[in-house]
Amino acid sequence: MSQMLCNIVHEKGRMVVRADALSLPFREVADAVLSIAVLHHMATLERRQKMISEILRVLKPGGRACITVWSMDQSNSQYAKMRDNKDSVAEEVKTQSCERLKVHDGKEFVQQDLLVPWRIEESDKTFMRYYHVFAEGEMEELLRSVGGCSIESIEKEQGNYIAVIKKN
């Protein structure tokens, strides 16, 4: 969460904590954890497993977590429809890419690990953000590899996988 979003939440009288997803500053007492569009920024399997483990650590037994990630298949998603009307920015940032990490051209994902150009409206700068987009079945496999939870559901909606898990 950006500092600006944290400030907005704080101004509305709510408590907010900005923290490292791999080392959450909480005890094991949470009823629920929401992780929206964070896990797919973890660059290795080990970091993705560590993040899931950390979510499970802060949950009390029986606590639930909802975790969302981008799906490799974006067909029929709002993201795909939005990108249909935009020019590709891949060419202008290609020099920032490396051999292994391709720059997403704004159409369909051609590999799971890639850089996605993000342009801030008020700026002419383009920032490259790392994404690991999830293949079908990969989220379930990841959760099972970590263990310590039951999978209540994994749904695909608007180009995202949404997993709901319960701590054992």
TrEMBL record:
Source organism (scientific name): Cylicostephanus goldi
GO-annotated molecular function: S-adenosylmethionine-dependent methyltransferase activity; tRNA (5-carboxymethyluridine(34)-5-O)-methyltransferase activity; tRNA binding
Keywords associated with the record: Methyltransferase, Transferase
Single biological process term from Gene Ontology: tRNA methylation
Entry GO CC: cytoplasm; nucleus
Domain Methyltransferase type, first and last residues per copy: 16-67
Matching InterPro entries: AlkB_tRNA_MeTrf/Diox (IPR051422), Methyltransf_11 (IPR013216), SAM-dependent_MTases_sf (IPR029063)
Protein name: Methyltransferase type 11 domain-containing protein
Keyword Transcription regulation set for record: no
